[in-house]
Amino acid sequence: MRITDLLSASSIDLNAKPLNKKEAIEQAVKLMAASGNITDIEAYTKQVIAREEESTTGVGEGIAIPHGKCSAVSRPGLAAMIIRDGVDYDSLDGEPVNVLFLIAAPDSEDNVHLDVLSKLSVLLMDEEFIRKLKAAKDIGEFLEVIDNADSESKSIDERLQDTGTYNAGNSDTNPADRYIVAVTSCPTGIAHTYMAAEAIKKVCKKKGYECKVETQGALGIENQLKAKEIEAADLIVFANDVGVSKAERFDACKDKIKKFSPHDVIKNPDIIFE
Measured between alpha carbons, how far is 55 from 51 in angstroms, rounded to an integer? Predict the structure, then answer.
């Protein structure tokens, strides 16, 4: 399944003009309804807003990824808006949102769509991808940008298995041979789980560290950390809004654990080194 399989032309607005966060969500939900992905607009909207009340999905850099998982969703889908003038969305960095993707996930055990949604979440952290989305002249070009990026991007499993190993001698920080492992998770297990994982991998790459990130998302535990990897780690990062599964694995290494919310890691990945 590809990202564009979940995003129809009728669910895209390249010139949205919401006046505030509430309007942005309501407009995105209407776009979602236009593609027939939800059966109860009110129930789905309540779910999306409830998720926002837990913590904002305005992840910074002008990006928002509101999402809801409930029985009002008949089939998985996406809606997208480009907001040229920006809208105040209570984002992590305080900046207005220009690009919004709404995710609808059914409350079922059919998880075939989750890898696709997780992949989109990671792509939205790519500045060049965002630039191309904003520059799209029409919906056809917008979908083409997504499809091309989807083809070129690694799968979630491939990205997670890429340990981000770099020659410490080429790093400005010269951190020597330190090894970092991390576990990320969030309430819905879709967006923030994988965005936090990507943020950790990027900051480790930047600083020259080797790392491995285990995600505990809607697809279950992926890229699971082995006992020897946990034992060898110089630093263990928990970026979680929910409890860590199989937490007993880390009992002997509690002195090496640092705990953060996924949102804090996405907002400022350098925090794991402070």
Answer: 7
Catalytic (active site) residue 186: yes
Same domain, 143 and 161: no
- 75: which 2 tokens? 């089939």
CA distance 262 to 259: 10
User: Out of 70, 113, 186, 211, which one is annotated catalytic?
Assistant: 186
CA distances in angstroms from 103 to 90, 149, 190, 224, listed in the order given: 18, 18, 9, 26
Q: Among the options 67, 113, 192, 263, which is catalytic?
A: 67
For helices 114-123 and 191-207, give the axis angle rounded to 10 degrees. 40
- Give the pair of three-digit tokens for residue 55: 């913590």
Instruction: Judge whether 162 and 154 are in contact, CB under 8 Å.
Output: yes
- Domain check: are 161 and 144 in the same one? no
Backbone angles phi, psi at 78, to 5 degrees: -130, 155
Active site residue 253: no
Q: Could you give the CA distance from residue 199 to residue 207 in angstroms, rounded to a whole number?
A: 12
How many independent structural domains does the chain possess?
2
pLDDT lower than 50: segments of the chain: 156, 163-176
**Dist. CA 250–CA 130, nearest whole Å:** 37
